[in-house]
Amino acid sequence: MKNKRLIYLIATGLLTLLMLFSAGMYFLNYDEVVKVFNQLGYPPYIIYPLAVAKILGLVAIWTNQSKTLKEWAYAGFFFDFVLAASAHIAVADGAYAPALVGIALLLISYNTQGHKTQK
């Protein structure tokens, strides 16, 4: 059981770093992110709301206050990663690896989270 908890903490920690890096880029390097979003066919007006959603999703996962909210956070991250990977594959820019790593970390985190400890 301790190994499962350790795997959860490592995967969720790495997922957190990935999402914070992503959200940070959205806020701190907005002009470059707009160029990427335009290349991928996404409207730039979703950049700031997506950054905020990523941060709130991490809060939902780590605080564990609501099982439903935590499930929605995991689902939202899953959709974000799948859409990012598919968009990068569609434009053939080769930048899909972080999204695939995100999916792997997300699945590991979700499957090792220990449902008994949720409120």
Structural class: mainly alpha
How is the main sheet built?
none
Query: Hey, roughly how much beta strand do the residues contain?
Result: under 5%
What is the typical, i.e. mean, pLDDT? 93
Shape estimate: globular
Q: Note the quaternary state here.
A: single chain
**Terminal Cα span:** 19 Å
Number of helices: 5
Order of helices and strands: HHHHH
Return Rg in Å: 15 Å
Whole-number total of structural domains: 1
What's the helical proportion of residues? over 70%
Low-confidence stretches: none
Total E-strand runs: 0
In words, what does this structure look like?
This protein is an all-alpha fold. Helices cover about 80% and strands about 0% of the residues. The chain is built from five helices and no strands. It has helices at about 1-30, 30-40, 45-65, 65-90, 95-110. The longest helix is centred in the N-terminal third of the chain and has 27 residues, at about 1-30.
